[in-house]
Amino acid sequence: MTGLRYVYAVCRPFGTPLQSQLAGVAGDPPRLLPHHGLVAVVSHVPEADFAEEPLRAHLEDLDWLTGVARSHQGVIDALTTVTTPLPLRLATVFRDDSGVRTMIEAREADFRHTLDRLEGRVEWGVKVYLPAGTESRSAPEPRREASAASGRDYLRQRSRQARTREDTWQRAEGFATRLHRTLAAHAEDSRLHAPQSPALSGAAGHNVLNAAYLVPRADSEEFVEIVDRTKDETENGAAGIRVELTGPWAAYSFVEPGETGESRKPDGEGEGRT
């Protein structure tokens, strides 16, 4: 098959084969391109979609971009089960194998340094949500009801609602702070991302904590058990707070932008990471 080379990740050589039915972007199965003791994971993509001009247009098409991101993430997920991949940013494309090799040579030192740092480690994402029905702190003031007997009654009503809203958010933020402190103590590193907007993430509720944790693969079971115990506690009465665990991911949040060219999880999970 001819076409451009789409690069998913760089990793060290590994002996375990990828899934036989694994399809990459545009349906082409990924293959391994070894060079200088490293391996680029690549597949062929058509110039009609991935040459500079059509790609620029496609990047404005959310449906097209979502399909590419899912295929990209599928390859990264498969790699994460057999090795420690260093994901490249979405739609990293080169003219041919020679272009991929040149890229490896140009970034070789950074690739090796980052792979050494992340070897045997995975990323876990943890989010804390308040229920969807909870007013945000920026909610508009309540409309003055006809039943309010006077301006004084209206002001009391507004004050009570404001206090209830603030108390709810303070409890949630206190819980999130304690949870993050606990999880960070059981991880090698952590990142706090900006809370995600429900309109963008599609998740129900208000996002109070959006964090990522770098955990040795061997310690992942213990880390998951800690989160599960916390989820059990919230179900037993923590004001409707919901804890969401995702992963294990490739360590997107712990790759510095200069090391790989802004490596980020395509669905944003690693961003302030969807």
Largest sheet: 5 strands, antiparallel
Q: Compute the number of helices.
A: 8
Helical residues, percent: 40-55%
The CATH level-2 architecture of the largest domain is identified as: 2-Layer Sandwich
The tally of strands reads 9
Derived structural class: alpha+beta
Oligomer: single chain
The arrangement of helices and strands along the chain is: EEEHHHEEHEHEHEHEH
- Residue stretches low in confidence (pLDDT < 50, at least 5 long) are 266-274
- CATH hierarchy class name of the largest domain: Alpha Beta
Measured distance between first and last alpha carbons: 32 Å
Keywords: Gas vesicle
Protein name: GvpL/GvpF family gas vesicle protein
Organism: Streptomyces broussonetiae
Pfam family, one: GvpL_GvpF
Give a verbal description of the structure:
The chain is of the alpha+beta class. The chain folds into two domains: 4-118, no CATH class; 121-260, Alpha-Beta Plaits (2-Layer Sandwich). It is 41% helix and 21% strand. The protein contains eight helices and nine strands. The protein has helices at 47-50, 52-58, 62-80, 97-118, 151-185, 198-201, 220-235, 257-260, and strands at residues 4-11, 31-35, 38-45, 86-87, 93-94, 121-130, 189-192, 206-216, 242-249. Strands 1, 2, 3, 4 and 5 form a five-stranded antiparallel beta sheet that branches. It has a four-stranded antiparallel beta sheet with strand order 7-8-6-9. Strand 2 and strand 3 (38-45) form a beta hairpin. The longest helix has 35 residues, at 151-185. The radius of gyration is 23 Å and the shape is globular. It starts with a strand and ends in a 14-residue tail after the last helix. The relative contact order is 0.16. Residues 266-274 have low confidence and may be disordered.
